[in-house]
Amino acid sequence: MTTMEIIRPERLAELKGAIPLQEYERAIVETDRFSVEELTPILMGLYGEVGSIMAAAKKYRREKAAYPGFKEALEEEFGDARP
Predict the structure, then answer these.
(1) pLDDT digits over 33-80, tens only?
(2) 28, 60, 64: which is closest to 77 by C-alpha?
(3) Span between the terminal Cα atoms of the chain, in Å
(4) Residues 4/22, Cβ–Cβ less than 8 Å
């Protein structure tokens, strides 16, 4: 079994803000409000974020050039949908 390196906050710039999922899980374990068995609230939050992505895509399809902030809005929504 290999051990993962603990990534310090000062290294996040070097990693461009991305960390491995296992490291993220290890970092949030002390503040996580849900038990491993409580999947429903997490899924409901994910569904809400995916709905926001779809709403931005629908607005872009409808308004095209009249929606200049589409790319930024979509990037933000995808960022919200990630763990």
Answers:
(1) 888 788 888 888 889 989 988 988 888 888 888 888 888 888 888 887
(2) 60
(3) 25
(4) yes
